[in-house]
Amino acid sequence: MNTPDRNSTVTPEPFVSADEAARFLSIERRFLLTLARRGIAGAYALGTGGLRKKWVFRLSELAAAIGPKRYDPL
């Protein structure tokens, strides 16, 4: 039976900028930021208060959020 080594470390997926995330999705940066403000998965706001925030993204979460939806007939 394989068990994880307690001393092994897992490197988390790095965050990317809005520019890089928009290129990944092939959409405009402005549209991506609109989606981020509406709560798309994979978008994380940095900073507190105020209207302007710096957004960072995880590409795997963005891909999953916009991935194909399953159709479930009644």
Biggest pleated sheet: 2 strands, antiparallel
Please tell me what the overall shape is.
extended
Distance between the termini: 42 Å
Strand content: 5-15%
Percentage of residues assigned to helices: 25-40%
Estimated radius of gyration? 16 Å
> pLDDT below 50 for ≥5 consecutive residues: which ranges?
none
Q: Strand order within the widest sheet?
A: 1-2
Number of helices: 3
Could you give the order of the helices and strands? HHEEH
Per DSSP E runs of 2 or more residues, the count of β-strands stands at 2
The mean pLDDT is 85
Output the structural class: alpha+beta
What this model shows, in words?
The protein has 74 residues and is an alpha+beta fold. It is built from three helices and two strands, in the order H-H-E-E-H. A hairpin with a 7-residue loop joins strand 1 and strand 2 (54-57). The longest helix is centred in the middle third of the chain and has 9 residues, at 29-37. The chain is extended. It starts with 17 loop residues before the first helix and ends in an 8-residue tail after the last helix. The mean pLDDT is 85.
Quick gist of this model?
This protein is α+β, with helices and mostly antiparallel strands and 74 residues long. Strand 1 and strand 2 form a beta hairpin.
Descriptive keywords:
74 residues; 3 helices; single chain; two-stranded antiparallel ribbon; alpha+beta
How do the helices and strands line up, and which of them pair or pack?
Elements: H1 18-25, H2 29-37, E1 43-46, E2 54-57, H3 59-66
Antiparallel strand pairs: 1-2
Helix pairs in contact: 1-2
